[in-house]
Fold:
Amino acid sequence: MNAMEKIVSLCKRRGFIFPGSEIYGGLAGTFDYGPLGVLLKNNIENSWWDHFVTNRDDMYGIDAAILMNPRAWEASGHVGGFSDPLVEDLETKKRYRADHLLEASGHSALGLNLEELNSKIQALALAGKLENSEGTVLKKIGEVRQFNMMFKTQVGATEDPTSISYLRPETAGGMFVNFKNVVDSFHPKLPFGLAQIGKAFRNEIAPRDFIFRLRELGQMEIEYFCHPSKWEERFEHLRTEFLTWMISIGLPESKIHEVEIGDGDRAHYSKRTIDFEFDFPMGQKELAGLAYRTDFDLKAHSEYSKTDLSYFDEETKERFIPHCIEPSIGIERTFLAVLSSAYNEEEIDGEIRTVLRFNPKVAPIQIAVLPLSKKEELSVPAEKIAKDLKKIARVSYDETQSIGKRYRRQDEIGTPFCVTVDFDTLTDNAVTVRDRDTMEQVRIPVADLASYFSDKLV
Ligand code: GAP
Structure:
């Protein structure tokens, strides 16, 4: 098994991630979180929210509706331009993303417009050098065309063009349309940001790489508004904050690569974009993006909604449309980055130990309480210890199988500490605390456990 296959298998076996609607054969591009996965996901989201919203005075959280008035997506340019280049293999009728086919054939699609992409694809097909990612040569290929990735849906009981809406392709839209509401209700001084965590939907031509490219995904996004003259300093500030947060959840800095996106390759709204790429098991790929969206969105929404979205600065008496910097990161890509960088296998006494070295801050379970035997004389104090520790940590209680097997199980789900209650506990009122990473064990009085863990779980 390669690294990705091992991670997929562990996720299923231990209840992190399951294929979506699996008993019906699945649905491509969808996955479900299991009990440990939802904990890890919530911890990632909470840490992002704490870092960017709770611990700052210039951020306002919102939670907007997924369905929006379709005019909002016309204004944002998504109805007209949120598309990927699609090409069909005329023999198998399989559809591919044209840029992915070029990459698989050893060429880059960077900077190419649709026409150039088409000529390159056709030339490669003619020369018998166009391959898909499995190495199959594609000979008869259709014209490359744009495919809009928004999921269309119908709102209400009438089936006519006016009832069409879309599942949002990014959470950003909900923040731009609430800009005025927040200004009018909170009167924030510039610069300030709106922050949101939520679902987005994209009808990807080729969902792949486990939870990397999905059709239903989570996003954590900020739209940070500032005076047009201040965008560069705000961009730099958010760039360093973004990186600091990524490192704080356990992503190794050496695996994060900042890539400046060139003129022809940025989204239609962006004047500058830095992608944060990450060394995933399948290679270096986009984890997050930081975009300077200028006044593109507020201006467009002003025009389409006929609502004034300008800002009046009381101090300078200046009225203007603020410019916007957007740090955006996918929840599942963060999840995969955290999981894949935590994954470790090591040989101990001739056996392979699988261990997820999660940062304790995001680990689904932080402390496992393990009574050495199921006997009541141990389970009663052990349950009491678990109950007390739950006030300061995410705790699980496990009394099944041998202690060695239980340690391995906790290693495999990334629990940083195990607290073992044994027969000596009944006389010395102390427990053994085992460290996941060093496997060292120390004896700690039960009364000191809370203070022992106080600086180890944050
Ligand atoms: N509001 C800006 C925006 O949506 P994006 O680069 O298209 O920009 C932002 O998406 C982030 O969302 C990406 O960096 C990635 O982490 C995540 N993302 C995008 N498409 C995805 C997909 N199909 N599956 C999983 N995550 C995705």
Remarks:
- Residues 365-453 form a domain with the Rossmann fold fold (CATH 3.40.50.800).
- The longest strand covers residues 283-294.
- DSSP finds 15 helices and 23 strands in the chain.
